Amino acid sequence: MIAVAILAAVPAMTQDMPPAQQIQQLRQNIAAQLEQIEKIKASLKAQQEQLERATTGVAARPLAMPETPRNPCEADTEGPTPAYLRIGSTCVVPVGFMDLTAVWRDKNAGSSIGSNFGSIPFGNTTNAKNSEFRFSPQNSRIGFRVDGDWKGAHFIGYNEFDFLGTGGATNYTVTNGAFVPRLRLFWVDVRKGDLEFLAGQSWSMLTPNRKGISALPGDLFFSQVIDVNYMAGLTWTRQPGMRVLYHPSNKLTLGLSFENPDQYIGGSAGGSGITLPKDLTALNSSQLDNAPNIGTANTVLAVPTVHPDIIAKVAYDPSSRLHLELAGLERTFKIWNPNSAPALGAGKYSTIAGGGVQLGFNAEVVKNFRLISTNYWSDGGGRYLFGQAPDVIVRSDGSLSAVHAGGTVDGFEATVKNWLLYAYVGGIYINRDTALDANGTGKIGYGYGGAPSSQNRAIQEFTVGFNQTIWKNPRYGAINAMGQYEYLTRSPWAVAMGSPSNAHDNTIYFNLRYALPGNMPSF
To answer: I want to staple 273 with a disulfide (CB 3.0 to 4.6 A). Which of 25, 181, 267, 410 is the partner?
Structure first.
């Protein structure tokens, strides 16, 4: 088409020129047109190549698929995931679990999910005519553990709360179960070489161990039961103090602990109080702890004390299959007689020493089957039996006398696949300690003839239970189902004519637990 146009235009442009010039002009025009044609071809070729490159790139790229949302807490779904957090140069793991506990009792003991062993209702009382059933999340726990090394020393910080605190202004069962957090444990432990030091609120060193004299809950024996008050006959408290440990070898540990003291005369957790002399009842609110004295009546520790309770302990672990321990307790009690002359003992002090001894073992007699025994006897150490026995009585002249009391827990624990099975028997014995009042006829003290039926001579418990791990994953935690049956009986020193000689109670627990993930690395 271009050549035709050129040829058609030639006559118009060359009709006035001589023939030779016309031919020369025609050649120049044709050359110019050919040059333009080559430029057009080159341009078209370049556009074609560019188009082909664009088309080839689109065809080679696969269609983009929508991405599956990733778990921001799970960076690597295949590789190992650390079960701890790093903060600075320390490792931190969460501590805790979420519990839903159901409890049924054949008598209305009115003690929430924990058993008050010493106040089981007698069969002829109103409370014994009704049963009780409750749900509770109170045994749920939350806390953390921090580990680190510094200049050759290893340190552990440990914190733990539950929701078994009390709050009288909150009605838990009507509108909102706003259960109050309670500090259980808050301590720091430092070990360098053979020496170890702990300070803070921890389990008492008198609490039986499973291994060494460690304060970590997993190294202690407070049974496997669901009951948040554990076992009748078990020695335990959680209280502030400090301890020093010496490790002469990896099998032997020696410990000395200084812990919060108390001059206790009963009244806590169902334990019976003593009968004071008529002229010295004011000691309840000033010098002796009858439980309400540092509970609802006062918000501070109001009872005077001489020095910390002193506990010494020796633990021997020849292998992971055997733990042996021996512990001793020393306490001092002191009061002042506030009466004026001529009253007996007016204006005088009374100071006495008390103490106790404990022996226990934890032995794996065959694989995954352990026998456990802990045995305690004291002269003025009743408060360490969950407050079920008083420490002292007061005579009419204001002098003190230590009450003999002891406890035992014996049983087994067996692991069968994902089941933990256990059974224990426990008991508390409280000796009588009596005197006559200043009038020579009134009876005072603990366990005298005609004493209140709350002053127990013996408390006994049999319990059996299980803990099944339903599901467990180190990334997510674990789910457990737990059950416990508990039979309790108590026998007072004195009962009214025609009244039952003892009281008993049947309790069934069921518990569902989600345990938080987390595991401290080896140091």
So the answer is: 267
User: Which helix (H) or strand (E) element contains residue 58?
Assistant: helix 19-60
What would the pLDDT profile of 242-283 be if each residue is shown by its tens digit? 999 999 999 999 999 999 999 999 988 888 899 999 999 999
pLDDT at 58: 47
Please give the model's pTM, rounded to 2 decimal places. 0.83
Domains and CATH numbers, the chain: 96-515 (2.40.160.10)
Distance from C-alpha of 147 to C-alpha of 152, rounded to nearest angstrom: 13
Angle subtended by helix axes 2-14 and 19-60, to nearest 10: 160
pLDDT(97) > 90: yes
> Hey, how many other C-beta atoms are within 10 angstroms of the C-beta on 343?
17
**Cis, bond preceding 181 (omega within 30 deg of 0):** no
Determine contact, residues 293/284, Cβ cutoff 8 Å.
yes
Q: Which of 331, 449, 350, 454 is closest to 395 using CA atoms?
A: 350
Residue 106 DSSP SS3: coil
Contact 352, 392 (CB under 8 A): yes
**Tally of CB atoms within 10 A around 464:** 16
